Amino acid sequence: MKILGIIPARYGSSRFEGKPLALINGRMMIQRVYEQAKKADRLAEVVVATDDRRIYDAVVNFGGKVVMTSSNHKSGTDRCREVVEKVGAGFDAVINIQGDEPYINPLQINQIAALISDDDTQIASLCKPIRDIDELLSHNAVKVVVDKNGKALYFSRYTIPFQRNETDTTKWMQLRTYYKHIGIYAYKSQILKEISALPQSGLEMSEALEQLRWLENGYAVRMGVTEYESYSVDVPDDIKKIETVFKD
Predict the structure, then answer these.
(1) Which candidate, 215, 6, 21, places its Cα nearest to that of 123?
(2) Rounded CA separation 100/178 (Å)
(3) Is the peptide bond before 161 cis (omega within 30 degrees of 0)?
(4) Tens digits of per-residue pLDDT, 41-61?
């Protein structure tokens, strides 16, 4: 299967303007994401999708491939669709790689590529077992419940499932494995076109989670379990935290 890796990158951000161009251990974040993605041998090609000339020029300068897209997109999924329409002919599937994870593990990209290569998989994503109580209870950590066949039943910012018979939340992880959603997506090319044309759904607007739109419209999201942690940059202070973990 021929798979295209797309890294959406916006300049404008309410919490961190110009984030893709921020330096992390001496190199721009978008360059680090791109170089990590290029290490994933199951990707036939990697391209950055941006709406900003500064990011476009930066990618060209470090030798990367980039496509200029509209500034009107509301999500990375919509931006990915435009890239597919422009340069995606011949690709069977697309992986939407988060542009704010400078040290994304190429093995995770290969893992999700393997999932989307299954003929029966429409959309794929990853999740990681939660080991920390603060993460379990945090509304910033999106949780996912998966059925016995590996398909997502629901995503929520709340801790799901709720343990009705145990009021002490610190004991919940002793009762079952909870999963945090890792925000990388893979789609069959035709499915990407379909889901990006869907109107916002009630569940999506309630939780501000785009993937709920897909579930509510009957699309299946196949989940893979990873033990690799994801380190994203949401605000400038996150850079300092990441630089204490990664030294290169």
Answers:
(1) 215
(2) 24
(3) yes
(4) 999 999 999 999 999 999 999
